[in-house]
Each structure stands twice: as structure tokens, then as C-alpha cells.
Amino acid sequence: MSSTLITNIGVLVTPERELTDAALISNDGLIAWFGSAKDAPAADDAIDAGGRCVIPGFVDTHSHLMFAGDRSAEFEARMAGQKYAAGGIRSTVAATRAASDDALLAHASRLIAEMSAQGTTTVEIKSGYGLTAFDESRALRLAQTLTGETTYLGAHVVPSEYADDVAGYVELVTGPMLDAVAPYAKWIDVFCETGAFDTDQARAILLAGIQRGLGARMHAAQLGESAGVQLAVELGAASVDHCTFLSNADVDALADGDTVATLLPGVEFSTRQPYPSARRLLDAGATVALATDCNPGSSFTSSMPFCIAVAVRDMGMTPAEALHAATAGGAAALRRSDIGTIALGARADLVILDAPSYIHLAYRPGVPLIHDVLVGGVSIRPPLRAVLLDDRAAPPVDE
Ligand SMILES: [Zn+2]
């Protein structure tokens, strides 16, 4: 048994309210107590939050970290006016197939370190750049060493060698490839979009995964309205991701069902597309999550604070709604209640912000505001130290 007291919390953001002058105790990785700092019981260790704001760790439910290669030239061309198309995924497939296990794992680990440094404490990782039974199962086997939230995305795009036989590729994805990945995957996903898979194919792919005991997720409505959104709701998918272009019927279906609408503002930013309206979804009563979609083609950001800033600036969310979507919303998109919230019994996955309020996440875009991150009550990075500034600072003088 090991307990840690975090004391001197300026603002503690719980689902019900914001507690000021608060403290929190984690015990064996779980939140065991929180309340007014003056009432805090003793613990084995103590962390002084220095009056800072403490929020739940971010839950990033959409990433494609198992890849090799660089597509910065494609981004540069797109910013110069070239249109985004789903087919660019194939250029990453060749590089990923050619990479060693060690190289893939080292690269994904580096991206996870980036995420952690920006306050993410849970991450989902998809396959989807292998597109053979061997390469997809390899990606998920490696991903499973980094997270329990692994997603099989053999149906990311049709690989070049199946360009004339899409039906044959769907048979592979729902047959031998599914057999190969099943031990390593928790979820199955499909990119339901023009240039990727149509709704009949998406239905067949998700149903095959569901029959194998995998949970369903979907990419849909990134480039235009799609029947995929209502299909995801109909099949009980945990999440439908992108949701950039939604009909009124799509919004109603999301509000009535229990499929989370996961918005990925990094994609609109990096492909120069219009942002989805989170406001419209929230007003209708849908559950909204925010995620990075960290991937080399359409959104190479690992930063949840960046997504929060864009969601507040351009998607109609209040700072409180954006924080909720990036934490509890993400947890809902993974069908979990043990993360993404500051509640008794939840995992002590916490971020100590170098700010008096979470509003600063949007108010100070692009600024590293993460003072410390705790995963299961344990600090995973030392506090930031202004080494250069300290070295160069003049000795203190009386003012
Ligand atoms: Zn994606």
C-alpha cells in the first residue's frame, strides 16, 4: 500500500464542481480521497501543487502511432493548395512494412512520450499501415506493449495490390487478417469514406469484428456526409470519429444512441477543412470527445491541449466543455468510467497545470502548461525547470 497526498491545489476540477484550496489522496493508484486541503488526512508521500490547477489526465482515443516514414512534403503541398485525399495513406504503408519491429516500437514510444509530456494519460493506438495479416498483427502486437486500447484498422484503405479486387480485400480483412490480429486487438475500426470503404463493406467489416468479441469504432464523415454515422450508431459502436459533415438526422441519431461523436480538430487544421460544430452536437444532447488522430498524413499533432484550444476557438465549445470532452468524453468513447474523471475509485491519472485555471489551456495556445503528470498516482516526469533562465539570471536585488 502506498498513498500520496497532493496538497495546495488551487483549483481541483471534479465533475460536480471546482474545489478551491483542495487536496487529493491517491492510494494504490486510485483516488481515495479529495476535499478541502485543511481536512486532508496524512499519507506516505506528499506533492505540493503550489496553488496550481489539477485536472484529470487527457484520454486520447484516436491515434495511429504504428508507422514509419515522413509526409511533411505532402503537408507542405497541401498548404500550397493541393487537396487532401484518403489515398495518401498508401505512401506510409510501404515505409511501415519495410521498418523493423524495433524501429516501429521506438518511434511509437517517442510519440507516447510527447503525449505524456502534454498531459495524456490514456491513449488508443490503431493499426492500419500494414494491411497484410502479418503486418497488421505485428503492429497490434507491438502496440499492445504500449496500451491496452488497441484497435484493428485493417480497413484503413485498400492496399495497391488489391486495387482491382476490393471485395477480395474485405474478405481478407474479415477472415485471415482478423484471425491474425484478434489476440492483440480490443477494438475494430473502418474508414468509411469515398476512396476508402463504402457502408456495405463497413457493415460487413464491423460485424465480423463484433462477432469475434471486438468493440466497434468507425472513421466517418471526414470529407462529406456519410451513411456511416448512422451505421455506427445502429451497430452500437463506441465511437464514430471525425463527424465533420453531419446531417440533422446524423446529429439526432448520435443524440439518441450511445455512440460518442469524437471530433479531431487536428485534422481540419492540417487539411484546411472546415471545423465540425461541437456546439450543434452538444445542444442536441450527444456525447462529444476530442482526440488528436495523431498520424503522419492528416494530423501529426500529439497535443490534446492544442485540440482543446482549437475546439474552443473554432468549434463552439466552452473551455469546460472542451476539457470534459478531452477527459470524460474520451473515457466514454472507450466505454470506461475508471479514467478521465476526478472521482473516488477512479485511477489517479492527473495533470497539474502550470496555470491557475484550465481555461488557460485555450487562453494560452501553444504554451507548455503541463507542470506534472501523475499516472496511477505516480509522477511520470520531473517538474519543468527554467535551467537556462536560472543560469543567466542576475543575483536577486532589492526592488
Ligand atoms: Zn484516424
Summarize the structure.
With 399 residues, the protein is an alpha/beta fold. It has helices at residues 72-79, 89-98, 101-117, 133-143, 166-174, 176-181, 199-211, 228-234, 248-256, 265-271, 278-284, 304-314, 319-326, 328-333, 360-363, 387-392, and strands spanning 3-13, 18-27, 30-36, 45-48, 53-56, 58-60, 120-123, 125-126, 150-155, 187-192, 215-220, 239-242, 260-263, 288-290, 350-353, 370-375, 378-379. The chain starts with a strand and ends in a 7-residue tail after the last helix.
Any overview of this molecule?
The chain has 399 residues and is an alpha/beta fold. It has helices at residues 72-79, 89-98, 101-117, 133-143, 166-174, 176-181, 199-211, 228-234, 248-256, 265-271, 278-284, 304-314, 319-326, 328-333, 360-363, 387-392, and strands at residues 3-13, 18-27, 30-36, 45-48, 53-56, 58-60, 120-123, 125-126, 150-155, 187-192, 215-220, 239-242, 260-263, 288-290, 350-353, 370-375, 378-379. The protein has two domains: 3-57 and 342-389, Urease, subunit C, domain 1 (Roll), CATH 2.30.40; 58-333, Metal-dependent hydrolases (TIM Barrel), CATH 3.20.20. 35% of the residues lie in helices and 22% in strands. The strands form three sheets. Strands 1, 2, 3, 4, 5, 15, 16 and 17 form an eight-stranded mixed sheet that branches. A seven-stranded parallel sheet has the order 8-9-10-11-12-13-14. The chain has a two-stranded parallel sheet with strand order 6-7. Helix 12 runs antiparallel to helix 13 (319-326). The model is unreliable at 390-396 (pLDDT under 50). The structure holds zinc ion. Zinc ion binds at residues 62, 64, 219, 293, 295.
